[in-house]
Automatic annotation (TrEMBL), chains A, B:
This is FAD-binding oxidoreductase. Residues 92-271 form the FAD-binding PCMH-type domain. It comes from the Bacteria. It comes from Pseudonocardia broussonetiae. Its cofactor is FAD. Substrate binds at residue 378.
Length: 519, 519
């Protein structure tokens, strides 16, 4: 994109790389398994004609800008189901007027200055993988998508302190490539790893792949450097501090509404060399739930401890015979590890160990491979009119079983209501804490092109309602964006909302940054 | 105090219990070891006559109030060296006009309402153990000390999720007494444990006794309930969330300037049953520093990993022969533990293991006993005119050795300059993170009554300067209060300061709460 010779092309309408998208026949075959679904996929769309740009950046910024239709199209939405459906429908009425790709922090400041003067909204864009409407704009006026991926370097590595200074636009693979020669890793692998940036992770309080320990990127931040419309804010690099409320925690989760995170000092670690894993099948999901709670409270820190319910295990190929599957994994940079303790707990709760425990075959590998492939399958199903989306939450253990069951029931009922056929609501627990799990739900239901957006909005409303009634968070790690504002507004204390509005007025007095997000 | 039959009486002028204070002869003997110090202690003071109260709470609150001189005197200051010296001098000119002891959250709100109407400042008071001027008032007008220790109950225990709902005024021992029947503990033991409250810990981002893992109380918070002058803010109980900036993190560290923390859901855990410990001596401090860095980055989580430099080890009786001492401790609720790995690292860096490793004798016990006794010794030395105070910080490993040496040199020079004799600057590392340690310094210098305040202020200014120059935090866990504002204002990003001011204007529009703190 824009002068980079990529061997692969990013899909402007769907997930990931164009070459990885499902072929038509595969889409049909997949959709055939979903009752009530159309099985002829709509065509992969061409970039439609876009509205003429309504904003013209000044000459000094012109070299950083593009109004190229394919680029504007690719920056119109994130990668939620809603986004894919709208793109497939050819609805790019909300495309950015301009895409700006700053090369320096000063460029970022210059864009914010110009935008403030010109009354143009600025939506920060990292890898563009938001699944919550975080990178689009729903206002009326002109807007620019501020693509930060040219700020993609690891500027400094402090091997003594195990920390690295990283630019906000660094994509996951680029980060790890630059840390690898030092024998270091951030060890933060969200599902969107290939298509998301460090700055995006920080702005959305991203959750990594690891089930326990520091699950959110928040916990590996030493300091942040943030460009706001009124100046730059930089905190000191500190391993810990008790000096007033944390300045960094105000920007973590600010979703581009308070400033643009241009740099961060992050805690890195030695690359793990020792691994162990195991998989355990359960006949009864409640038994598995009890097992993972005991594991989460047993004082161990596992790299992986994912519980897939029957449907999720079946869908991912981790288990075919009506079982829930618990995938356990440990790793260390320091010495041999095992999963003996957690395995013992799982077996005591009625689990049955799978034979393969080397982490590269069996249920572990099946699930891992399906996990990375899943967004492409999602796109294929969407082309066939299916309703296919995920949402995640977190709650305390005392309500976990009730909540999971209520979501299954109520979201399932909503899907049946709007689709006219039974859908599927699967659950896995992606992250575990001593005081509660993070349940992650997948909704699948048969549908047809044209009805998908409205159908999903109704199903999503049911999900928001059941989460809110149980005081389970509207998002564990996908962020709020625009799609989850109703749930967020219910969850957030009113006085914190008022506080955020006051902070926004200070840092972004002209309301330039990501309008509609947070406040 | 006020209707409670205490077997022991809190000292109004010094640390802890009156019966634990040092006898005159012991003070003299201790001071005799400090060159240049007076050795006749000034008398333990009587409560001086206090200014007549300038504020009269309304009848509805009168039953919660006291203007009793001993109570007002005890609520005038915290327990910093400056506070003890001022109390010994009989300077209680800044005493609160009234001390209010609410019984309910509604009482707290009523006090804030009245204070706003009457133009009276309100300074929240937990256990009164602030060592940074957090619980006094330095303005001109009338003020009340809002003593929260009647809100002292554990309201609910969720054993399934391992969490407890605790009132903000619960003192450390009361908390543990109420959790013990459930087999649970918060495992948060600051040095002030007996004399500090849960709400105080939360408002000051207190650091516990444990060297690694969740060191700050911040990390065990599920939700907070806070009474502000404009209403109550309550967050949802969540094990984790990615929904916008954390509402709780705004109140954590807010030091009573944004609201009064009346309740919190906190993560508790099973009481540990297995322990192991060891002590290692080092001839050279840099070797010990290298050892603890390697331990901190070795993937273990120790309960204890305190490094005492030569002076600190000598002072506490942990080592008499010119050694630095590293105290290692592991604990678990789940199974046997050992400290073999960290011990091996320490020995590889030239450490020599002490013989006793059972955790109840030798260097470990000596240091532990001295640790708890230290504030009483401080008071005894203060009565003899000594300069005796501590401060703590945190920094990354790349600057740790340079910083510790710079503090020793520059703070030592300042002490020599103002006292005319060589003082002592000892260091221990109290908390360890993979990316840096928390060094804790003790300053001891001979002096005389009458010169202590000015002398300490000059020494403290030197400490603030050297910490700031190295971008080491002004406080790791003592908080900012009024005493550390200069260092805090230097450290805090300007835009975060502006943000906090905006939040303060929203939550405390009449500026009632702890004026002078934070903003």
């Amino acid at each position: 994109m824009l002068g980079r010779m990529e061997q692969r092309t990013r899909s402007w309408w769907g997930w990931g790389w164009t070459g990885e998208a499902m072929a038509d026949e595969a889409c049909s075959a997949l959709a055939a398994g979903l009752p009530g679904c159309a099985t002829d996929p709509v065509p992969v769309p061409e970039v439609p004609e876009l509205r003429a740009p309504r904003a013209a950046p000044p000459a000094a910024l012109a070299g950083l800008c593009t109004a190229e239709p394919a680029v504007r199209a690719g920056h119109t939405y994130g990668k939620a189901f809603r986004d894919v459906v709208r793109a497939l429908d050819g609805d790019l009425s909300g495309a950015p007027d301009v895409v700006v790709l700053p090369r320096t922090e000063d460029d970022v400041a210059a864009v914010l200055d110009w935008a403030g003067d010109a009354g143009v909204a600025v939506v920060p864009y990292g890898g563009g993988s938001s699944v919550v409407g975080g990178t689009e704009y729903r206002g009326e006026g002109p807007w620019v998508s501020l693509d930060l991926t040219r700020l993609d370097r690891v500027l400094e590595v402090d091997a003594t302190s195990r920390a690295a200074r990283v630019q906000g636009g660094t994509l996951g693979p680029g980060l790890e490539d630059q840390l690898r020669p030092h024998g270091l890793t951030l060890r933060h692998f969200p599902q969107s790893f290939e298509f998301s940036t460090v700055g995006g992770w920080l702005a959305t309080r991203s959750g990594g792949h690891y089930a326990m320990g520091p699950t959110h990127v928040d916990d590996v931040v030493e300091s942040l450097r943030v460009v706001t419309p009124v100046g730059v804010s930089e905190s000191w690099r500190l391993p810990a501090s008790g000096a007033g409320p944390s300045p960094d925690r105000l920007f973590l989760g600010s979703e581009g509404a308070l400033g643009v995170i241009t740099e961060a000092w992050l805690r890195v670690q030695r690359r793990p060399e020792h691994r162990a894993s195991a998989a355990v099948r359960f006949v009864r999901f409640p038994d598995a739930l009890a097992a993972v709670r005991e594991i989460a409270q047993s004082g161990v820190t596992l790299a992986n401890c994912r519980l897939l319910d029957h449907g999720e295990a079946h869908f991912s190929g981790a288990a075919s015979g009506g079982h829930a599957v618990l995938v356990l994994g440990a790793e260390s940079a320091h010495g041999p590890v095992d999963v003996a303790g957690p395995l013992e707990i799982a077996l005591a709760h009625g689990g049955v160990a799978e034979e393969c425990t080397d982490g590269r075959d069996g249920a572990v590998a099946s699930w891992r491979s399906a996990f990375l492939r899943m967004p492409y399958l999602r796109d294929g199903l969407a082309r066939c009119g299916a309703i296919v989306e995920t949402f995640e939450t977190a709650c305390t253990w005392d309500t976990a079983d009730v909540l999971v069951e209520a979501v299954r029931t109520e979201v399932g009922a909503a899907a049946r209501e709007v689709c006219g056929v039974d859908g599927i609501v699967n659950c896995r627990l992606t992250h575990l804490y001593p005081d509660g799990p993070a349940p992650y739900f997948t909704v699948l239901a048969g549908g047809r092109p044209g009805m998908q957006l409205g159908a999903w909005d109704e199903i999503r409303a049911a999900a928001t309602e059941v989460l809110g009634r149980h005081r389970a968070t509207i998002t564990h790690h996908h962020a709020v964006g625009r799609d989850h504002r109703p749930g967020y507004d219910r969850q957030r204390p009113d006085l914190f909302a008022a506080s955020l509005r006051a902070v926004k007025a200070v840092l972004d007095p002209r309301g330039v940054l990501n309008p509609g997000v947070l406040v």
